[in-house]
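Milestone 3.1: sequence recovery, worked example.
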């Protein structure tokens, strides 16, 4: 048997073996959550990318709804321009679709929501808002992997937020933990 075939079979069996471990994992009313993520950040209309780190805290007032605060830091280093950092501080609300039963009794929990907040650094301060979407894969009843996406519009006034040339795509992969 070819090595790649054996590797594929081993990985497939390992994946199937962990599905029972993923059973019955989802947030519940009263849970708190902390998450850490790293993301790739691509400003629209440019050919450069940046790295971003996020930390978030959330609370579940119901089984499906999470409200919280996200803090992210981005650092850009380029040979052509001065080094730049910025931070985003943004409250968020996410709705978790927790009863879909996609794998292992709700181990996969998709979410959809939005945020509004501030982007700041030593030179500037502006507003940001946009949608959030993602998928949490619960590895245990409390620990999950998170794959998410958000679109950040920037504005000086709320009426200016539809100008998409001032926006970012942010894709992230992270880990999180829920507790009562």
């Amino acid at each position: 048997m070819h090595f790649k075939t054996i590797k594929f079979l081993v990985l497939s069996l390992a994946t199937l073996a962990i599905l029972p471990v993923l059973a019955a994992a989802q947030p519940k009313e009263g849970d708190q959550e902390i998450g850490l993520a790293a993301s790739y950040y691509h400003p629209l209309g440019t050919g450069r990318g940046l790295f971003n780190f996020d930390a978030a805290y959330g609370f579940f007032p119901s089984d499906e709804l999470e409200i919280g605060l996200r803090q992210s830091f981005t650092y850009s280093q380029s040979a052509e321009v001065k080094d730049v950092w910025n931070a985003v501080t943004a409250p968020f609300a996410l709705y978790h679709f927790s009863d879909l039963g996609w794998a292992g009794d709700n181990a996969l929990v998709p979410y959809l929501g939005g945020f509004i907040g501030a982007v700041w650094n030593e030179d500037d301060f502006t507003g940001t808002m946009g949608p959030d979407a993602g998928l949490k894969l619960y590895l245990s009843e409390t620990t999950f992997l998170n794959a998410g996406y958000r679109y950040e519009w920037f504005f000086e006034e709320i009426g200016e937020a539809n100008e998409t040339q001032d926006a970012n795509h942010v894709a992230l992969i992270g880990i999180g933990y829920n507790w009562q």
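The domain at 3-179 is CATH 2.40.160.20 (Porin). Strands lie at 32-43, 50-59, 65-76, 84-96, 108-120, 125-138, 143-155, 167-179.
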